[in-house]
Amino acid sequence: MPRPKKCRRVCDFPENRAFAPLGTHRNQIISLSIDEYETIRLIDKKGFSQEQCGEQMDISRTTVQLLYASARKKIADALVDGAMLQIEGGDYRLCNGEAHCLNCQTCLKHQLNQQYQKSKGDTIMRIAVTFEDGQIFQHFGRTEQFKVYDAEDGKVISSEVVSTNGQGHGALAGVLRALNADILICGGIGGGAQAALAANGIKLCGGVSGDADQAVESFLAGSLHYDPEVHCDHHGHGDHEHHCGSHGCGSHGSCHE
Question: Which of 5, 39, 95, 204 has the fewest Cβ atoms surrounding its Cβ within 10 A?
Fold first, then answer.
């Protein structure tokens, strides 16, 4: 009986998920998986040995060698043949920012956990809203603030505004995870960010505008209108990821428990 495939631990989604040569209209697309990308990031960018890479990703050195060789071949094909390189899919699980990181002092999620970690009780639902001047800010990746609401028994019991401190869009899902957010209400949001939210177990209500407080009240009343096909033109969209575990990309439907 074959051994079950082990999910590869990766730090986070890449900031840029597609690359294409200038001045070409070729339709060829080469897909680099996120776990393959992680071996390139760790070995070629961070200078890890293959053994260290395996420890970081929680896989064997043999698996690292296979992923690394496949990744380099795909990158070479894209460069030589002038193909578009797209980073998507794979068998992976996202790092949760715990102290297993070899370089945890520079691990972004570890830093976000230390900076933003906000505990909550088991009966609390935590709702985060992209926020500016009382309104729902319309571009998730550019938001400078979240307004965070704690609700219990269908009522808001507390709220506070939290600065993102200039975190890039790739880190914002990590901020929400560290804040222990259950729900995000926002305007436009890219496909990569949607996948990151789903991987962190955060439900999305996108395409919402207007007063932030009123949106949360509507959400708690079960009457919030949102757009399940929302995207943001400033980011790539339409990305669908494979994740180990129960979180898929963009589970939509009723936006309340």
Answer: 5
Strands 125-132 and 145-152: antiparallel
pTM for the full model? 0.60
How far CA 102 is from CA of 11, 51, 53, 66, 209, in Å, comes to 11, 12, 9, 21, 42
pLDDT mean across residues, the chain: 81
Residue 89 one-letter amino acid: G
**In angstroms, rounded to a whole number, what is the distance separating the alpha carbons of residues 164 and 151?**
22
Most confident of 7-16, 71-80, 159-168, 235-244: 71-80
Go through the chain and tell me how many residues it has. 257
The answer to whether residues 207 and 144 touch, using CB atoms and an 8 Å cutoff, is: no
Do 15 and 62 meet the contact criterion of CB atoms below 8 Å apart?
Answer: no
At 79-135, the pLDDT tens digits run 999 999 999 888 888 776 665 555 555 555 555 566 566 777 789 999 999 999 999
Read off the pLDDT of residues 4-18 as tens digits, 9 standing for 90 and up. 556 788 877 787 888
- Extract the runs of DSSP E, i.e. beta strands, from the chain: 8-10, 18-19, 29-32, 84-87, 92-94, 125-132, 135-136, 145-152, 155-163, 183-185, 203-205
Q: How far apart are CA 86 and CA 203, in angstroms?
A: 25
Phi/psi of residue 18, nearest 5 degrees:
-155, 140
For 120-159, letters b (16+ CB in 10 Å) and e give: eeeeebbbbbbbbeebbbbbbbbbebbbbbbbeeeeeeee
